[in-house]
Design goal:
The structure holds two protein chains of two kinds. Chain A is mostly beta strands. In chain A, strand 10 and strand 11 form a beta hairpin. Chain A is globular. By secondary structure, chain B is mainly beta. Chain B starts with a strand and ends with a strand. The chains are: A mainly beta, B mainly beta. The interface between A and B is medium-sized, with 24 and 26 residues.
Chain lengths: 113, 114
């Protein structure tokens, strides 16, 4: 069964606007971590932000914030003030208490000037 | 800087060949992973290893095997390559727990099976 679901294959946003990339997950483990990665066209995987299942507050890192709704099992990434350099693939990932890490299908974000 | 190095950036193999994809990390990381990345499917976990000689199947292990004889090296083996194994293969090593988790990725190997 798919553990990480990203329902938006592609998203467009106007430069300087905010955008939300959706991620829902499925786990019965009370302890888990959620991650977002950016993959530009160069192919490297860039870590953006982390949210732990026990964290009381939503994670923020600069222009990135994570809208964590535990009861709904969603961990949406919010990018504020989009820049042209934000155009990339974005992956949501989850690591449960055991050691593996699984990823969603990704969302291709295009920032329009 | 931690480095994860995959032996080849591009590889072309024939159907039926045995293919070895090598991954080496230069830190003492216990956890190593092999993923394949396909458009619309994201990164799918093939196998992972949490210690030398230990391996666990991921979501799509069929047609693949792995070897971890030394901590720094995690090899992915395609026993008999098929055209549906044409893909981008990413190796990663993982260290830490919780918010201290760091994943380091190799540059990827684009495998074409003809």
């Amino acid at each position: 069964a798919q553990k990480i679901t990203q329902t938006q294959p592609g998203m467009f946003v106007q430069e300087k606007e905010a955008v939300t990339l959706d991620c829902t997950y499925d786990t019965s483990d009370p302890s888990y971590g959620l991650f977002w990665y950016k993959q530009p066209s160069s192919g490297e995987m860039i870590f953006l932000i982390y949210q732990g299942s026990y964290d009381q507050q939503n994670a923020t890192e600069g222009r990135y914030s994570l809208n964590f709704q535990k009861a709904r099992k969603s961990a949406n990434l919010v990018i504020s003030a989009s820049q042209l350099g934000d155009s990339a693939m974005y992956f949501c990932a989850m690591r449960e208490a055991h050691n593996d890490m699984r990823f969603g299908a990704g969302t291709r974000l295009t920032v329009k000037p | 800087d931690v480095k994860v190095t995959q032996s080849s950036r591009y590889l072309v193999k024939r159907t039926g060949e045995k293919v070895f994809l090598e991954c080496v990390q230069d830190m003492d990381h216990e956890n190593m992973f092999w993923y394949r990345q396909d458009p619309g499917l994201g990164l799918r976990l093939i196998y992972f290893s949490y210690d030398v000689k230990m391996k666990e199947k991921g979501d799509i292990p069929e047609g693949y095997s792995v070897s971890r004889e030394k901590k720094e090296r995690f090899s992915l083996i395609l026993e008999s390559a098929s055209t549906n194994q044409t893909s981008m293969y990413l190796c990663a090593s993982l260290v830490g727990q919780g918010m201290n988790t760091e994943a380091f990725f190799g540059q990827g190997t684009r495998l074409t099976v003809v």
